[in-house]
């Protein structure tokens, strides 16, 4: 690519609250259409909105997590537009005095553009709070509107145009999602529309200070769609420029099936929305006492937790970053450690066995049938040699499907590791007698023959012999 790519993101995140932004209807996903509605969120004339303090608190918290300045004086504004998803014909949003401004999210990991080795700060222009609009669904003959979503508190997080590749956009969104999950602000489940993204992308030649006209691609609802649409759009724009064509500022949609953007409209200016202060709502004043109190509630960020895991549990950076990429996973791991299981072994078992079982069963950590206490117990049973690693895997599968504890399964199935030397000696003798060739090879110093003989002992003991003891005893038997 002979052009520099300039990308800015506008991310909408639904705030997790009991009720909607300006009325007491439940803020809940998945109910029958138009069952969670009232005159306020249906936009009847004469109704009065009442702001949801919890939504404001979580927006300020998001601002603090993103290192923003928090406005002690803020207000809501009316944004006028006509569309069936907004029956009032205006949306209550924030215009010139948003709750949070001038922050940053520091991203890290593979895929940063090459002048940034480990981390890159992405500026946050602003975070404001508004109400979500209704959801339109288009059928063959007609369209349907579901107002359950109308009035759900919605944060808009606007980034500076600091992102220079589709990979960075992906990393930034992942980081943002983790922050929201860590602070219990939103689950950011993109399939449920809890996080939606618009991207702004423009190109400029490295020699020139001026940007070419930008394109906005709207309503991307998966991280993959964001990445693919940016790849497509940078390619499309560079082809136009290389063919000496002219780009015009426009808004485009994304067709995920064919992997292309398409033109929706030429961009309207902010003035078209005729913003003005919402006359039915008082400006929001935040006391510095309240802000100080809120600052104490700011949880660890994913990056801070990752650093602490490395420091406190002496696990490798890779492990720490996998474990902390998901808050529930990090919580689960930390609980296990509090029950006394070894950190590195717990990390291995979490990343490999537990994540695999969860993904196969399509379950989250919150739905995990094995609780941290029982998981920690399993790992301790391996550590104190009650069972060996191989049997532990089978036991774990069983725990996962039956919900039983490791000890219950070990007792039921008689899986305790055999560490009684007399008993193992029987198996060793049997292995030596029935395998003269490997025995001869081992005597001649061929070490692979030892592995074979240990395997035989494991087979005769139905996997229950302690392999280290078996190996020692074979060597002793033959010396
Ligand atoms: Zn309502």
How would you classify the helix and strand content by structural class?
Answer: alpha+beta
Main sheet: strand order: 2-6-7-10-1-11-12-13-14
Low-confidence stretches: none
Q: How many domain modules?
A: 3
Arithmetic mean pLDDT: 91
Count of DSSP-assigned helices: 15
What characterizes the major β-sheet? 9 strands, mixed
- The proportion of residues forming helix, as a percent range, comes to 40-55%
Percent of residues in β-strands = 15-25%
Question: What ligands are attached or bound here?
Answer: zinc ion
Terminal Cα separation, in Å?
68 Å
General description of the model:
- By secondary structure, the protein is an alpha+beta fold.
- It has 3 domains: 4-289, no CATH class; 300-413, no CATH class; 421-478, Arc Repressor Mutant, subunit A (Orthogonal Bundle), CATH 1.10.10.410.
- The chain is built from 15 helices and 16 strands.
- It has helices spanning 53-65, 166-182, 223-242, 288-297, 302-313, 317-324, 327-338, 343-361, 372-383, 389-402, 406-413, 421-434, 436-443, 448-460, 467-478; strands at 4-14, 69-70, 73-74, 77-80, 90-93, 100-108, 119-131, 135-138, 143-146, 153-159, 195-204, 215-220, 250-255, 260-265, 276-277, 284-285.
- The termini are far apart.
- The structure holds zinc ion.
- Zinc ion binds at residues 20, 23, 25, 37-38, 40-41, 151.
